[in-house]
Each structure stands twice: as structure tokens, then as C-alpha cells.
């Protein structure tokens, strides 16, 4: 849509934040999970409990026959899934890690939990495990230091999407909120 004024968020308003195709990332998550399962380690995928987790669960559901194990979740992820299901979204079944789970099942599992769970007693009982963060922030090398691995996956607009929207709108005034506002504003002015 063309507009005289455009207001946009720019959480990821730097050129380093450019997203690969989501199906490519889901394939990478499954490959990572398979590698960990073969090694007998639980795959701990750190995701935002409401939104990102359900997006990944839905994508994994489309490839259910090729998954190396069962899906488990932190209580906050399960609560988010319940809200989505109540809204009519179909999601694969997830098991609660709080239940007693035999080690041979857990070592082939993908466990989804919020990043805040890292380093807690809840995560420690998953050992041996390998952790990865699924977030747009993984494009920033500093975030890769927090976990063993990472996957660039975001629901926010990336650099190219923001610039494309500004161009397509043909707006004469662009207001930027939340994120790298000064850097992006300078780029647009130049």
C-alpha cells in the first residue's frame, strides 16, 4: 500500500539481520536434532514460549514422518500451545518434561524451553544435552556464545523487508520505533 506516512518497528534494522528461508531453518533444526539423537544427547531448543515455539511445532508437524524422536516442552511452551489449540490451530502433541520420562526416550527428544530456562535445575536434568537458540538475534555473533548452536529464525521484519516496505509505500515521512532507529534513520536519509 502506498502511504504518505509510514510507521514501522525496526527491531532488526541492521544489514546483518537478513533471514534465510524458514523451511531451510526447519531442515537445519531437524538435522541438528538427528545428529544429537544419534549421539544420545537431548536436543534443547530455546525459543520464545508463545509464538516462536508454536511456529516451529507447526512446521515440524508438516514433516512428522521424518522426525528422529518425540517433542517435549517446558510448562510455559505447553501453556502457549494450549492457547493456540483453543484458537483452533492444529499442533503436534508435546509431552511434559515434568513427567517421568525414560532416558532412552529423552535422549532422542527435542525439548523446547524459553531462553530463561538455561542454567536452571530443570535444564540440568536433561543432561547430556545440546542447546541451541532459535531467534533472529542469532545473526548477531554475540548471541551465539550463549548456547552450543543457533538458528536464525524470526517473526520480525529483517533489513531487506523493512527497506522493501519503505520503498513500496513511497512514504515521504518514515517513523521508526523499537530497535536500531538511529542507524536505520541515518541510512534512509542518506
Compact description:
The chain is an alpha/beta fold and 190 residues long. It has helices at 22-38, 52-61, 75-86, 103-106, 121-124, 159-169, 181-189, and strands spanning 5-10, 42-46, 71-73, 95-96, 110-113, 129-134, 149-151, 173-179.
Number of helices: 7
Which term fits the overall shape?
elongated
SSE-based structural type: alpha/beta
Approximately how much helix is present in the residues?
A: 25-40%
Radius of gyration: 19 Å
Largest sheet: 6 strands, parallel
Number of strands: 8
Mean pLDDT: 93
Terminal CA distance: 24 Å
Biggest sheet: strands side by side, in what order?
Answer: 4-3-5-2-6-7
Low-confidence stretches: none
Strand content is 15-25%
Task: Give me the strand/helix succession.
Answer: EHEHEHEHEHEEHEH
Question: What would the keywords be for this entry?
Answer:
190 residues; alpha/beta; 7 helices
Could you explain the architecture of this structure?
This protein is of the alpha/beta class and 190 residues long. Helices cover 35% and strands 19% of the residues. It is built from seven helices and eight strands. Strands 4-3-5-2-6-7 form a six-stranded parallel beta sheet. A two-stranded parallel ribbon has the order 1-8. Strand 3 (71-73), helix 3 and strand 4 (95-96) form a beta-alpha-beta unit. The protein is elongated, with a radius of gyration of 19 Å. The mean pLDDT is 93.
